[in-house]
Amino acid sequence: xxxxxxxxxxxxxxxxxxxxxxxxxxxxxxxxxxxxxxxxxxxxxxxxxxxxxxxxxxxxxxxxxxxxxxxxxxxxxxxxxxxxxxxxxxxxxxxxxxxxxxxxxxxxxxxxxxxxxxxxxxxxxxxxxxxxxxxxxxxxxxxxxxxxxxxxxxxxxxxxxxxxxxxxxxxxxxxxxxxxxxxxxxxxxxxxxxxxxxxxxxxxxxxxxxxxxxxxxxxxxxxxxxxxxxxxxxxxxxxxxxxxxxxxxxxxxxxxxxxxxxxxxxxxxxxxxxxxxxxxxx
Amino acid sequence: xxxxxxxxxxxxxxxxxxxxxxxxxxxxxxxxxxxxxxxxxxxxxxxxxxxxxxxxxxxxxxxxxxxxxxxxxxxxxxxxxxxxxxxxxxxxxxxxxxxxxxxxxxxxxxxxxxxxxxxxxxxxxxxxxxxxxxxxxxxxxxxxxxxxxxxxxxxxxxxxxxxxxxxxxxxxxxxxxxxxxxxxxxxxxxxxxxxxxxxxxxxxxxxxxxxxxxxxxxxxxxxxxxxxxxxxxxxxxxxxxxxxxxxxxxxxxxxxxxxxxxxxxxxxxxxxxxxx
Lengths: 282, 276
Fold this sequence. Notes:
The complex is a heterodimer of chains A (282) and B (276).
Chain A lengths: L7 E12 L8 E12 L3 E6 L5 H8 L7 E6 L2 E2 L6 H7 E4 L12 H11 L4 H14 L15 H13 L5 E5 L7 H16 L3 E6 L10 E6 L2 E6 L1 H4 L3 H6 L6 H11 L11 H8 L2
Parallel strand pairs in A: 3-8, 3-9, 6-7, 7-8
Antiparallel strand pairs in A: 1-2, 1-4, 4-5, 9-10
Helix pairs in contact in A: 3-4, 3-5, 4-5, 5-6
Chain B lengths: L21 H17 L3 H18 L3 H9 L2 H14 L4 E5 L2 E4 H27 L2 H12 L9 H31 L9 H7 L1 H24 L18 H33 L1
Antiparallel strand pairs in B: 1-2
Helix pairs in contact in B: 1-5, 1-6, 1-10, 2-5, 2-10, 3-5, 4-5, 6-7, 7-9
């Protein structure tokens, strides 16, 4: 994880977003004044309960939704500026929750080529990118298959390859593992780690606390606002607050907390199971 | 299992015919069908059958596979055959009860039957040797010139691509809904036709809602991947007219020339016989 000079790639300034809802007089506010700066090459996990505004936040980053108040910038481009919308979507790719409903073509490699084709890239360059992207998610052997022959985890890896082939600077994952079995979930999380190592900026929207522990930074959303924000070791000091927001602490943090209550000395900052095991078995 | 379904009737292979430019194959199939209607006698059909047989042999599609396609329209062939046999006036050959078989009738029946069989086999060879998705690419490319007349060739092709992609997904969805409704006591197997049709409503309504939801999610995913219509789009699989396509086109032209020659030649012969 080579840290280059800190550079903001996504800047969210006092973002407000409101939905019009049927049967209700006023709009309902999904995001209520969120400001975040995301550094290039970082891995940020955004977590929150259903309705906390985390998915709405994700869709605001690549201009699928436009702010009602405040502004969002991606690599210097403002999302509300209609002229730069394609620049933004190429720079900030997005992987969605449902592995089925984001694949366009009945052949894996054609689907991965869909994004580059939209960008108007030359065919032999598309071929190179498609092969590289499929290799990166370990799906090259399945390139001629039809998506409906693949498992959920494999489909989600194809979806990731489709975004990687567009060479984005950052990728936003909107609950990519929510519909997968544990094995598929592990596959996808492994790829996230690899993309992070390659220096791609990652934003992971999730409601599995366990998935946030590998991130550099955790943002906890509650009722459309940022409730907690910081590196995992920092955020998980506030276990009480996290529980009050209806979320669970990760296993290692929970264990540390309980051992502490029993009077054992456990340092804060042990957030992954591996770290905890290493400490306990030292 | 629902996962194993194949769409269309593509026969996987890597033959010379499989690798031809889909545009050429579409045009060739159309030309072949037109030729079948131009041909007026059995000499012509023998030539067409020979050309088709050679193409099938090169494509390495098993004959059994081809004949399976004929099974579906077997009834139509039999129907056409019988109708032609009994309904044509002319020189009586023999009688079956009240029905009379004429020489002209038998000739017509055989003629129409041959035409139908060749027609079906010729057109199914196209779908057997071309993946649905490549067929779509070919159609898009062929329809492009009509864009000036307002034909949305890219949009039509994209719709077909998405339809091909989502047929299995929607089948799975249907399966799921049927199971869910069966678990609640819905009955899809018994009762009259009308009752059974009515019992399908609890499947169709959720299926439609589900299809709309899928469409919405897919549209968003496509937009997120910078989809903005056919303008300025490139393709991974560029259709290229290669040497082998030119060779195939030349062979096709030779076939048309021979059939045309036979027809002209036959006309002179018949005329000659008539004078004598």
